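Bit of a strange request maybe. I'm writing a small parser for structure token strings and I need a real example to test against, not something I typed by hand. Could someone generate the tokens for this chain?
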Amino acid sequence: MTEPLPPCPECSSAYTYELGDLMVCPECAHEWSPAEAAAADVVRDANGKSLAEGDDVIVVKDLPVKGAPKPIKSGTKVRAIRLVPAEARVGGHDIDCKVDGFGPMQLKSSLVRKA
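Reply from user aminoacidic:
Good idea to test on real output. This should exercise your parser:
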């Protein structure tokens, strides 16, 4: 059985097809290389270092939390992060984690650095 083709990274269409070394979306006419798409899915911190599942990170600036009386302070260490798959990301939040004193939440990788 053949492996299903990936959806279009631009419009999420499932009707993609191969054209030589490229993938093509017939709905939005986007063309991409599967190798480049895999490399583009790397999550990087505020300093440009790549992050992986289970890494510990440190928050680089105060983050206001809706409904909380105080923000997450700069320098707060977050342990054992989980990376959100590209198709499940909402609003640029690409890290799932549990912050002590705040509970489970999602963070943007641009607001943390690798510990």
